[in-house]
Write a structure and sequence with these properties.
By secondary structure, the protein is an alpha/beta fold. Helices cover about 35% and strands about 20% of the residues. The chain has one domain: 3-Layer(aba) Sandwich (Rossmann fold). Strand 4 (about 115), helix 5 and strand 5 (about 140-145) form a beta-alpha-beta unit.
Length: about 230
């Protein structure tokens, strides 16, 4: 769940998405807009037969995160990939979009792993967010979320595995929850049309942790994270 994906990256990686959806809020009309795309629509988009502007990653963050999952996860052909676009080209989104995307994922997809390299400082929707994340975990999903520089959601919530890079973990305030720290200084990813090494961030650390689950399975304690299991 992020800023979408570059169709150029999908073509270059030979990746077929099993499903994808976009979620935006029309503030003037006060209306939530969502579009869900089938596997066939996505294949046509990847092959150049159609255009899906609502999924195209105009920022690059979502594409970079997905590239880490593919590169480090070593996932086989039997893995189905889903993309939920909730952030625009300026990495802005709405909590309503986050909730709607989680509703789609938990109701229609039921994935094994959900990667949330994002967050919000707003807490108006904490109750429904808690319920949706709890549902995801009860259905068997491992939900990973990147820690932010300030306290926010969904990081730190009991149902998610909160991940930080080493620098972020040191900068967090006492009492902020981190379940896992990725110590590497750089990470290999796809950005600006090419693969290369980039400085580690908590977003990329979260994707690396999700890739670890794809590659090795879920470590003990991650699937049902609780406050009593967590350490800094």
């Amino acid at each position: 769940m992020d800023s979408g994906v570059s169709v150029g990256f999908l073509r270059g990686a030979g990746l077929s998405l099993a499903g994808a959806a976009s979620f935006t809020v029309d503030r003037e009309a006060r209306r939530l807009e969502s579009r869900v795309h089938s596997r066939e629509e996505l294949a046509a988009w990847r092959d150049g037969a159609s255009v899906l502007e609502d999924l195209e990653d105009t920022h690059g963050h979502g594409t970079a995160v997905l590239s880490i999952l593919l590169d480090q996860g070593r996932a086989g052909a039997d893995v189905d990939w889903y993309v939920a676009r909730v952030l625009d080209g300026r990495m802005r989104g709405d909590s309503l979009c986050l909730l709607e995307a989680l509703e789609w994922l938990t109701k229609d997809v039921r994935p094994d792993v959900i990667n949330l390299s994002l967050g919000t400082v707003g807490r108006a929707f904490e109750a429904p967010l808690t319920a949706l994340l709890r549902r995801a975990v009860e259905q068997g999903s491992v939900v990973l979320c990147a820690a932010g520089p300030v306290s926010g959601l969904p990081s730190g919530m009991p149902a998610v595995v909160t991940v930080a890079d080493a620098a972020m973990a040191l900068a967090l305030r006492k009492g902020d929850i981190v379940d896992h720290v990725e110590d590497a200084a750089t990470v290999r990813l796809y950005a600006d049309g090419a693969w290369g090494e980039r400085p580690m961030t908590s977003s990329y650390a979260c994707a690396l942790a999700a890739a670890r689950v794809l590659r090795e399975g879920c470590p003990p304690g991650w699937r049902h994270a609780t406050a009593s299991q967590r350490t800094r």
